[in-house]
Specification:
Layout (H helix, E strand, L loop, with lengths): L7 H8 L18 E7 L19 H9 L1 E3 L2 E2 L5 H10 L28 H7 L3 E7 L45 E5 L11 E2 L2 E2 L5 E3 L15 E3 L8 H20 L5 E6 L21 H22 L6 E7 L9 H6 L24 E4 L8 E3 L3 E2 L3 H9 L15 H4 L11 E4 L5 E5 L2 E4 L15 H4 L5 E4 L15 H17 L31
Parallel strand pairs: 1-10, 1-11, 2-13, 3-14, 4-5, 4-10
Antiparallel strand pairs: 2-12, 5-6, 6-7, 8-9, 11-12, 15-16, 16-17, 17-18
Helix pairs in contact: 2-6, 5-6
InterPro entries: Alkaline_phosphatase_core_sf (IPR017850), Sulfatase (IPR050738), Sulfatase_CS (IPR024607), Sulfatase_N (IPR000917)
Protein name: Sulfatase
Pfam families: Sulfatase
Length: 536
């Protein structure tokens, strides 16, 4: 596949990572494992030391997680931006089958996950799991709107809408409505209103003042969207608070977990997304930049979760997944990082929002001592939508045809038993809704541009001069520099037909045909006209 993604130097970096081992502690005896899913926000593949030996940011806890489990070198988020990826993780279904065809939701947007749709949380809850979400939701919840007022449904709310909500009223259709017994966190990204914590169906402190925050704390930078905030709310307190809540939750569930009632904790962190706001003890720790400091604090948060599992004797029978929702954002200040020799996108082209791999080729680590061989790696092309089918496979659950339509089980890969690709192909999606399809070493992008924020930007003069599609051989050109669509028209035609089939079938996995929620427009910039005689 792509052997140079995991060079010998990286193997050495993993080898020297330290591994703390709990000694003389009771072990959990539940037949079914506890499941923890840690989702970082805008963390680049190149930010994790065990994935990028040349990286300059210390990530000892992620490295430890990778050394003790499996490192995936070709994993992808289903979208190059936030809300869509989270939809895919929770539902096992590609985000572009939902009404959200581009962009992201806002902090006041209504619930995106369809009523009646099975989620990984509702599935696990039905099979005896205690379920909790602690962190950044960003999948919509139904706030009580003031009489005659409204908010934008499928995008970030407008400045004149931020006061259209009764923040004292109960919130409906939040995480508790899709299978989570307990929720604590923030409604969306930390640069979106309201700036206050939510517990289950209510805010913990009313947002009675208006605030905004710099994108990078301590520097003159673009401010976050101004709007309602709790008086004492500060971005630098959010990551430590979420981490403490997660550690406390694991402690509270320990006795039940050791006596046959496992738990599922979904922990979507707010970091290192903007506002880039490391807490006081982490400021300056990296010697590189505030972003690097925030990555190090994110690594600390992951370490706290691993620590409590070991202290409580739960590590052996807990599956820990760690991923990022998309690639690194330009807000990290790539030029500043590059001056120190650090590249968050590793060798990939582009960054967050793009159809290029820098937008969606993400870190993905999985540890399960009871089943996964320590120090193992996989170059399977996988997607974060695979989480739901993996959980079902672990528990021996047969999923109905109308659930997890784009989710393939990773269990054979994790157990070292996969002898072929688990996906026929994987679909990528950018911020403007552009598509790409990856099969083996071939990646076809159904647009002439980045589909996102890097050059060539969509519908610019530069993009309009380029071929309507881009085809890359990822085994020879991981940086996506040489478009070979003209030399391999038969591959282009075949992959377009496969993408059309995936859309028409309403799924990419075996099963009965399903309906997409809305009509799917494959071509966001200009259509591709296949040359005659090239269909095979």
């Amino acid at each position: 596949m792509i052997p140079h993604l995991f060079p010998r130097s990286v193997c050495f970096a993993i080898t020297v990572c330290s591994l703390a081992v709990a000694v003389a502690l009771p072990r959990a005896h539940a037949a079914n494992p506890n499941i923890i899913y840690i989702l970082c926000d805008d963390l680049g593949y190149g930010d994790v030391k065990c994935l990028n030996a040349e990286g300059k940011i210390a990530t000892p806890n992620m490295d430890r997680l990778g050394k003790a489990g499996m490192i995936f070198t070709d994993a992808h988020s289903s979208s190059a931006v936030c809300s869509p990826t989270r939809y895919g993780i929770i539902t096992g279904r590609y985000n572009w089958r939902s009404p959200l065809q581009s962009g992201v939701l806002g902090g006041l947007s209504p619930r995106l996950i369809e009523q009646g749709r099975m989620t990984v949380a509702s599935m696990l809850k039905e099979h005896g799991y205690a379920t909790a979400c602690i962190g950044k939701w960003h999948l919509g919840m139904d706030w009580a709107k003031l009489p005659g007022k409204d908010v934008t449904e499928l995008s970030v709310e407008k400045p004149d809408q931020v006061h259209n909500v009764d923040y004292a009223a109960p919130i409906k259709n939040g995480p508790n409505s899709v299978g989570f017994d307990y929720y604590y966190g923030i409604s969306a990204s930390l640069d979106m209103v309201p700036y206050t914590f939510i517990e289950n169906d209510h805010v913990t402190v009313l947002p009675t003042v208006d605030k905004s925050f710099p994108f990078t704390e301590g520097r003159e930078s673009h401010p976050t969207r101004p709007g309602p905030a709790a008086p004492g709310f500060e971005p630098r307190d959010v990551l430590p608070t979420l981490t403490r809540k997660a550690v406390d939750y694991i402690g509270q569930r320990t006795n039940d977990a050791q006596n046959g009632k496992p738990f599922f904790l979904y922990l979507p962190l707010n970091s290192p997304h903007t506002p880039i706001a490391p807490s006081a003890e982490w400021q300056g720790k990296s010697g590189i930049s505030p972003y690097a400091d925030f990555v190090m604090e994110t690594d600390w948060a992951i370490g706290e979760v691993l620590r409590v599992l070991e202290e409580k004797g739960l590590a052996d029978n807990t599956i820990v997944f760690m991923a990022s929702d998309n690639g690194c954002s330009p807000s990290a200040d790539f030029a500043e990082l590059a001056e120190k020799g650090h590249h968050p996108s590793y060798v990939f082209r582009g960054h967050k929002a793009d159809i290029f791999d820098g937008g969606h080729h993400i870190p993905f680590l999985v540890r399960w001592p009871a089943k996964i061989k320590a120090g193992s790696t996989s170059d399977q092309v996988v997607c974060l939508t695979d989480f739901m089918a993996t959980c079902a496979d672990v528990l021996g659950i047969k999923l109905p045809d109308n659930a997890a339509e784009d989710s393939a089980s990773l269990l054979p890969v994790l157990e070292g038993k996969a002898d072929k690709p688990i996906h026929e192909a994987v679909v990528h999606h950018s911020v403007n809704g552009s598509f790409a399809i990856r099969q083996g070493n071939w990646k076809l992008e159904l647009c002439p541009s980045s589909g996102g924020w890097s050059d060539p930007r969509p519908k610019t003069a530069a993009a309009n001069k380029l071929p309507a599609v881009q085809l890359y051989d990822m085994s020879a050109d991981i940086g996506e520099r040489k478009n070979v669509e003209a030399e391999h028209t038969e591959v282009v035609d075949r992959l377009i037909r496969l993408m059309e089939k995936f859309v028409a079938d309403g799924r990419t996995t075996p099963g009965a045909r399903q309906q997409n929620d809305v009509p799917i427009k494959l071509w966001k910039e200009r259509d591709f006209k296949a040359p005659s005689g090239n269909a095979d």
